């Protein structure tokens, strides 16, 4: 049994240590806001924060999480920057189907936490690992800038 | 005038002849694979220590099937004798050599297309001497100059193991070599020169563990076939033993005990982890042919055998190489002046998620780039091949690192390789689209 | 499972789980207003009150949110909001006062007014449903008002409604909709309720906030893949690597030895492993060694697929449109007047690659079947599952969910059928999830198309035009009645009626199928036809030394609406000014394209930069659009922006190829989607229009592809005729 802390709550995890955090969150803990898209770190829909850093949860063995704090889309709204990003997303109507957006929001929040005023180069560097098939990129870029200003 | 010219010519030819003889002689008369160890090697039968051949002590009491399978794993037959997606041991895998393409034969006991009708003597002759039942010669892509060191008992254990497999009817594909390489009789001469045709001789002055390691590395594992450079005659250059070679287009790195280019600064634990799992922290991930060696051979060996291999490897003298001292971690953000926009674009889209901007690895340690030889190798060859084909001991359907060769242009692969080596390595590679095209063809 | 799914669903499942009809209107209380659709043609013009067990669009409870039942599904295109806006507009309620509910499978009541079957697709939702839904809202309002009028004994005309409250201003009396709902439900609904005139619109035409977004940004939305049922297991599956192959042999033991694996389900063409988590199931699957019989497709190679289609395109075709004697005029060959030009354009198979992989949760028990899925075709899904199980469709409940990207990939019931076949062998509910690799390899692809165009140009005008489309017919399978006289009206859409005057005209169609499964894909038929027409026009312009915009203007003299759109895009993009230099490549170019399809007119100007290595970067895209009357302008802009990104991915990267009957692509490393760092600035200008509403989900995808290809043509002088663009063909040796 591994214990992990997600959104401030401690969970006992039955899955074996190699199981990616993503499937523990989704299938064992029922935190389905974090999505599955590729399983090979190419799409970013599974992005969570581990100690504030954006991480692809499909790649992280749950056994390596240890004491670090995991934050998911369900919990990021309780951070200031997370809440600002969510609001910007609403203000600018960024979202279409929405499936990629938990990952986009987590990546954007981590970016803004590390760099409160990112330029296009920094946005590309932080957000290019997050695919959106609906093509909301133009608004994601605007949304990040909007959140940075707010 | 004419006479003088003729004399000069004769002199020149003579000098050239002597030189050629000298060079060839030096190629032929070279030390044995473990001569560096000194001591007085003895015949196996005369050796008093625990046997360095066969299965390790833990498996001494195991059933014959288990023991046969183990010896076959030691010799890693399966990797070469299985086509991609094909039946194990049924052959058909292509090897692109400088002079043509060779296809491995079917080793399953099918009487028509496999080795079902082979006698023990025929099998021994093939493995020890490179001679097929019909008397023709194998190309040394089949590593009989190493396998010749295997004990008769072990060779026959492999045969017994192969005969337990389900026969697969799959005809062997003909090789396509051009002249003169299609003249197989030439191989007879080559064999005389380069295959000593003698069994492993333990060195009593060395520990039993070392001797076991030597047997595993030199006879069964045939590590030198990839990791030792070859001379002009395509034979292993034992004077630069483990100084690095080439395997299917991949660079097989220096595994001598040189501390910069080799594995001299790897701890025993690093080596053991790398060999048995294909990865050690900060050392990268076994890829290409080495990944297969790990998956189908090394990962199946016992802890004691891995330990023996490590002991032996660490005794191999240093051979200097030309790899630079690895670079330290990269900064956590991209540079602001971007001189390689295509490389940056691909890195941030496809690579940064796993490797992180620092190169420390984002979600798992296998993804660390800092300090890894592949990214510090200014040739960039292995890095480009990993990007093209992917890498890592993953599941059959999902490698640890996906390959990008199918959907990215040569220009893009070159750009991202150069970007990665510049950012995380000691010196940037300077690959061009043309180089990537050649690497694609080599594989 | 440490988790109580019901508890978690609280609030979250609002949009998806509650089925009005299952609960029954009687149980909910209040007014259920339904629109029954005449059996022959599905038009909602005869509203009448229906009982609790009948279908409904509007449900007014005695308290709380008004329930609106959405006939079209939400997959990102914003129709939940636009459908709700239509109903709420007439009902005089706010969007914050509603609850959106998926319609259950029920073709009679929710059948698409154009397709007849119950489906969402083809950019038709606004076209088809605006009127019926407004009518549903207006009729409900009239009934509610008449109860209040009777109670107060005042003329209905004196009553005003706002935010769900009926007020008699003169007397200051007020009643909420909920208070009169029960009585209103017992009335005979009026049949001739007038709709609001557009000048009184409060919602329609405004940039209303989308109703599905708040849940989406906090991770609360439950997509099909997020469903959790008590006692549920997870299944990973693998189908034959060669399309259509069958399983020879599998030894189940290695999977069953893996931790968390419960069961191996072996079907003739699929192996599935059931486990405690998706991961456990997938690891079990990976442990298996399967052997397959490849079957008839083993020799299917891409080169042959291209060649076979090309060959088919030279065979006999079916005439779609014929004006004058184009064939005769073109037959004169080079000896005839003006310039004769011919070219072919080829488009590859494409995967849908929605971010939400295919998935479906199924529970087969006690002679019934429950399904949880996000589908564009709930009726087909229900029928497909019923057929697998050999039970009546009524025994199959389809709980539809919001969709993480459709793009046509969920217009097929095949995944539901597959999941049902697996679930049939599993005790308890099982969630079947396709890995991305399986999602791509087992997709039904956008067909491979071939377009051959021949034209004669005389004095800058096209005097004869022949467009031949070769490809499979999706409609012949998907909606057989729509496949008439050997013509697939989707495949030739965009070819049959281009906006231009093209002289004597011949358009024909060759149906050619090749064993690869195919289906609709965002942009559908016009993706191939418009791409070809617009590429070809640029070729004509170049060959006759004319500017591409000028050339098109010359063909649009009798189509002012199209001309206005073209001019708007050209002006906004600064057509004619030099293309700015770019850090992304030394060669730059600008391209234009125009289309009229889905009832909408769009023009697009794209700018590209091309490196010496042949890498293309789209640096700017301008779109001008006349999409008729607009319900929500922000949604229209968003759909065009998103469609453009989708289309750029197609023209630059997307390609499914076959080798030995196997799909060569597997995941996003080899099936490339566009990333944010490849996305250009996209500017959209909506032209105001009072024409009837056109579709908007697909046009952006269609129009950007030829615009980009034409820009590359301008930048490199090479016109690429087989998609996607091939870097090696436009690389310049340096
Ligand atoms: S699912 Fe983790 S990056 Fe795609
Ligand atoms: S909003 Fe649909 S995938 Fe991004």
TrEMBL record, chain A:
Keyword Metal-binding: yes
UniProt-recorded name of the protein: (2Fe-2S)-binding protein
Matching PROSITE patterns: 2FE2S_FER_1, 2FE2S_FER_2
This protein's UniProt keywords: 2Fe-2S, Iron, Iron-sulfur, Metal-binding, Oxidoreductase
InterPro entries assigned: 2Fe-2S-bd, 2Fe-2S-bd_dom_sf, 2Fe-2S_ferredoxin-like_sf, 2Fe-2S_ferredoxin-type, 2Fe2S_fd_BS, Beta-grasp_dom_sf, Diverse_Oxidoreductases
CDD domains in alphabetical order: fer2
GO molecular function, one term: 2 iron, 2 sulfur cluster binding
UniProt domain 2Fe-2S ferredoxin-type: residue ranges: 1-76
From TrEMBL, chain B:
Every Cytochrome c domain range: 63-166, 208-317, 338-424
Co-factor requirement: heme c
An example molecular function term from Gene Ontology annotations: electron transfer activity
Residue sites binding heme c 3 per the record: 351, 354-355
Note on cofactor: Binds 3 heme c groups covalently per subunit.
Record InterPro entries: Cyt_c-like_dom, Cyt_c-like_dom_sf, Cyt_C_IC, Cytochrome_c-type_DH, Membr-bd_ADH_cyt_c
Lineage of producing organism: Bacteria, Pseudomonadati, Pseudomonadota, Alphaproteobacteria, Hyphomicrobiales
Keyword flag Phosphoprotein: no
Pfam family, one: Cytochrom_C
UniProt-annotated binding residues for heme c 1: 77, 80-81
PANTHER family per the UniProt record, alphabetical: ALCOHOL DEHYDROGENASE CYTOCHROME C SUBUNIT (PTHR35008:SF8), BLL4482 PROTEIN-RELATED (PTHR35008)
The protein, known as: C-type cytochrome
Intracellular or extracellular location(s): Cell membrane
Keyword field: Cell membrane, Electron transport, Heme, Iron, Membrane, Metal-binding, Repeat, Respiratory chain, Signal, Transport
Binding site for heme c 2: 223, 226-227
Cross-referenced PROSITE patterns: CYTC
One Gene Ontology cellular component annotation held by this UniProt entry: plasma membrane
Membrane-traversing stretches: none
Gene3D superfamilies for the chain: Cytochrome c-like domain
């Amino acid at each position: 049994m591994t214990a992990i802390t997600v959104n401030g709550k401690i969970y006992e995890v039955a899955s074996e240590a190699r199981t990616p955090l993503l499937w523990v969150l989704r299938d064992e803990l029922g935190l389905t806001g974090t999505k599955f898209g590729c399983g090979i770190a190419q799409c970013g829909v599974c992005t969570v924060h581990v100690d504030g850093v954006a991480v692809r949860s499909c790649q992280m063995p749950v056994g390596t999480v240890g004491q670090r704090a995991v934050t998911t889309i369900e919990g990021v709204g309780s951070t200031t920057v997370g809440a600002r990003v969510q609001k910007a997303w609403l203000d600018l109507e960024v979202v279409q189907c929405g499936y990629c957006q938990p990952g986009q929001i987590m990546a954007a929040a981590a970016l803004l936490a590390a760099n409160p005023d990112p330029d296009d180069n920094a946005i590309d560097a932080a957000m290019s690992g997050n695919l959106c098939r609906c093509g909301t990129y133009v608004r994601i870029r605007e949304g990040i800038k909007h959140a940075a200003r707010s | 005038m004419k006479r003088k010219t003729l004399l000069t010519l004769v002199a020149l030819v003579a000098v050239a002849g002597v030189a050629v003889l000298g060079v060839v002689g030096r190629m032929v008369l070279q030390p044995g694979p473990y001569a560096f160890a000194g001591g007085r090697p003895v015949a196996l039968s005369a050796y008093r220590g625990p046997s360095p051949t066969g299965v390790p002590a833990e498996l001494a009491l195991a059933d014959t099937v288990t023991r046969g399978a183990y010896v076959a794993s030691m010799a890693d037959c399966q990797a070469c004798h299985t086509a991609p997606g094909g039946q194990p041991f049924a052959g058909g895998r292509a090897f692109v050599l400088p002079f043509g393409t060779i296809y491995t034969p079917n080793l399953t006991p099918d009487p028509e297309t496999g080795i079902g009708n082979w006698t023990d003597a025929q099998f021994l002759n093939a493995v020890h001497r490179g001679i097929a039942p019909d008397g023709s010669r194998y190309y040394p892509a089949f590593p009989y100059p190493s396998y010749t060191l295997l004990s008769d008992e072990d060779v026959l254990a492999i045969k017994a193991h192969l005969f337990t497999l389900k026969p697969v009817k799959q005809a062997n594909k003909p090789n396509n070599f051009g002249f003169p390489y299609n003249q197989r009789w030439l191989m007879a001469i080559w064999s005389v020169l380069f295959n000593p045709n003698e069994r492993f001789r333990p060195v009593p002055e060395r520990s039993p563990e070392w001797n076991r390691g030597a047997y595993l590395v030199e006879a069964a594992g045939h590590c030198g076939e990839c990791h030792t450079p070859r001379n002009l005659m395509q034979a292993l250059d034992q004077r630069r033993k483990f100084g690095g070679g080439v395997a299917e287009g991949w660079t097989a790195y220096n595994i001598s005990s040189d501390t910069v280019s080799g594995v001299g600064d790897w701890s025993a634990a690093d080596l053991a982890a790398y060999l048995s799992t294909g990865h050690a922290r900060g050392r990268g991930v076994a890829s290409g042919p080495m990944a297969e060696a790990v998956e189908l051979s090394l990962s199946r060996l016992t802890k004691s055998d891995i330990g023996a291999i490590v002991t032996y490897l660490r005794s191999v003298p240093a051979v200097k190489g030309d790899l630079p001292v690895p670079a330290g971690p990269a900064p956590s953000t991209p540079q602001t002046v971007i001189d390689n926009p295509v490389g940056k674009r691909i890195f941030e889209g496809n690579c940064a998620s796993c490797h992180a901007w620092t190169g420390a690895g984002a979600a798992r340690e296998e993804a660390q780039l800092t300090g890894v030889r592949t990214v510090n190798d200014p040739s960039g060859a292995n890095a480009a091949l990993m990007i093209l084909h992917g890498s890592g001991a993953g599941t059959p359907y999902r490698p640890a690192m996906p390959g990008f060769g199918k959907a990215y242009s040569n220009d893009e692969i070159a750009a991202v390789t150069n970007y990665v080596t510049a950012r995380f390595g000691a010196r940037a590679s300077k690959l061009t689209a043309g180089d990537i095209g050649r690497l694609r063809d080599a594989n | 499972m440490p988790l109580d799914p019901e508890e978690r669903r609280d609030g979250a499942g609002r949009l998806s789980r509650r089925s009005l009809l299952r609960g029954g209107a009687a149980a909910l209380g209040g007014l259920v207003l339904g629109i029954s659709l005449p059996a022959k043609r599905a038009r909602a013009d005869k509203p009448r009150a229906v009982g609790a067990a009948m279908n409904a669009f509007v449900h007014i409870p005695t308290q709380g949110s008004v329930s609106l039942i959405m006939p079209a599904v939400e997959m990102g295109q914003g129709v939940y909001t636009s459908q709700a806006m239509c109903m709420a507009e007439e009902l005089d309620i706010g969007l914050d006062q509603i609850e959106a509910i998926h319609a259950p499978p029920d073709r009679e009541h929710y059948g698409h007014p154009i397709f007849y079957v119950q489906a969402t697709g083809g950019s038709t939702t606004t076209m088809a449903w605006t009127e019926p839904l407004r009518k549903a809202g207006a009729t409900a309002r009239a009934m509610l008002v008449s109860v209040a009028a009777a109670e107060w004994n005042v003329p209905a005309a004196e009553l005003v409604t706002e935010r769900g409250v009926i007020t008699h201003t003169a007397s200051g009396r007020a009643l909420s909709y909920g208070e009169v709902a029960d009585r209103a439900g017992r009335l005979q609904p009026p049949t001739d309720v007038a709709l609001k005139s557009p000048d009184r619109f409060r919602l329609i035409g405004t940039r209303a906030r989308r109703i599905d977004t708040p849940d989406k940004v906090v991770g609360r939305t439950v997509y099909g893949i997020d469903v959790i049922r008590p006692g549920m297991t997870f299944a990973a599956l693998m189908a034959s690597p060669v399309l259509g192959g069958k399983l020879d042999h599998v030894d189940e033991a290695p999977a069953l030895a893996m931790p968390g694996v419960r069961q191996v389900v072996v079907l003739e063409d699929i192996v599935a492993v059931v486990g405690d988590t998706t991961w456990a199931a997938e690891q079990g699957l990976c442990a298996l060694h399967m052997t397959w019989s490849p079957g008839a497709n083993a020799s299917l190679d891409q080169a042959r697929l291209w060649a076979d289609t090309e060959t088919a395109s030279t065979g006999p075709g079916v005439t779609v449109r014929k004006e004058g004697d184009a064939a005769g005029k073109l037959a004169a060959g080079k000896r005839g007047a003006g310039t004769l030009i011919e070219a072919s354009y080829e488009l590859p198979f494409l995967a849908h690659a929605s971010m939400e992989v295919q998935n479906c949760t199924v529970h087969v028990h006690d002679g019934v079947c429950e399904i949880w899925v996000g589908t564009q075709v709930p009726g087909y899904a229900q029928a497909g599952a019923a057929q697998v199980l050999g039970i009546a469709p009524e025994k199959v409940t389809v709980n539809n969910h919001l969709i993480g990207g459709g793009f046509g990939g969920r217009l097929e019931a095949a995944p539901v059928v597959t999941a049902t076949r697996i679930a049939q062998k599993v005790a308890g509910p099982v969630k079947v999830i396709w890995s991305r690799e399986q999602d791509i390899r087992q997709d039904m692809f956008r067909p491979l198309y071939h377009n051959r165009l021949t034209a004669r140009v005389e004095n800058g005008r096209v005097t004869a035009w022949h467009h031949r489309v070769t490809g499979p017919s999706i409609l012949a399978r998907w909606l057989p009645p729509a496949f008439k006289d050997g013509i697939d009206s989707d495949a030739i859409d965009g070819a049959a009626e281009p906006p231009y005057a093209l002289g004597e005209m011949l358009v024909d169609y060759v149906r050619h199928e090749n064993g690869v499964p195919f289906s609709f894909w965002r942009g559908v038929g016009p993706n191939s036809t418009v791409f070809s027409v617009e590429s070809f026009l640029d070729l004509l312009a170049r060959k006759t030394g004319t500017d591409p915009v000028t050339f098109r203007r010359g063909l649009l003299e009798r189509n002012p609406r199209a001309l206005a759109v073209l001019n708007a895009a050209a002006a906004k993009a600064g057509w004619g000014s030099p293309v700015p230099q770019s850090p992304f490549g030394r060669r730059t170019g600008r391209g234009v394209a125009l289309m009229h399809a889905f009832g909408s007119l769009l023009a697009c100007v794209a700018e590209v930069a091309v490196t010496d290595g042949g890498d293309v970067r789209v640096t700017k895209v301008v779109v001008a659009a006349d999409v008729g009357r607009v319900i929500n302008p922000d949604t229209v802009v968003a759909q065009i922006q998103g469609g453009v990104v989708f289309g750029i991915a197609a023209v630059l990267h997307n390609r499914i190829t076959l080798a030995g009957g196997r799909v060569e692509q597997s995941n996003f490393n080899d099936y490339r989607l566009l990333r944010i760092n490849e996305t250009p600035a996209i500017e959209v200008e909506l032209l105001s229009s009072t024409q009837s509403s056109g579709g908007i989900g697909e046009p952006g995808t269609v129009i950007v592809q030829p615009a980009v290809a034409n820009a590359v043509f301008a930048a490199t002088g090479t016109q690429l005729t087989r998609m996607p663009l091939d870097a090696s063909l436009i690389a310049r040796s340096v």
